[in-house]
Write a structure and sequence with these properties.
By secondary structure, the chain is mainly alpha-helical. It has one domain (about 25-110). It has four helices and three strands. A three-stranded antiparallel beta sheet has the order 1-2-3, with no helix packed on it. Helix 2 packs antiparallel against helix 4. The chain is extended. The termini are far apart.
């Protein structure tokens, strides 16, 4: 005998738990943002990512695929739609930019490229 399985073993799985919505309080977000600003390797990208996430409510993939060409600080808008790709059910669309995001974007834009 070669000690190989010849059929699948029965495995018991627990019931799937109820989904949980976890929200950051203002003070928790402030501490997270402050820590990101102090982190040497992350202080350029991470704070801007956090501000975009909290003020636009967009998903991680939408924020990470964003390009500077889609950010219009003069008119105060960000277009999250991907050029050349059809729109999915998770509509990305265009959003207005808050003062905090505009300020962070203006400070970050020159050296991010």
């Amino acid at each position: 005998m070669t000690n190989q399985l010849t059929r699948g073993a029965a495995v018991w799985l627990p019931d799937r738990p109820e989904p949980r919505d976890v929200w950051l309080t203002r003070s928790e977000f402030a501490r997270l943002l402050w820590a990101a600003l102090k982190a040497p390797k992350a202080r350029g990208h991470l704070p801007l990512f956090l501000l975009l996430a909290i003020y636009t409510g967009r998903r991680k993939e939408a924020i990470l695929s964003l390009r500077w060409a889609n950010v219009d600080l003069v008119n105060g808008t960000i277009d999250f739609r991907r050029s050349g790709q059809s729109e999915t059910n998770k509509k990305r669309g265009t959003v207005s930019v808050s003062r905090q995001v505009a300020r962070a974007s203006s400070a970050t834009a020159p050296w991010l490229g």
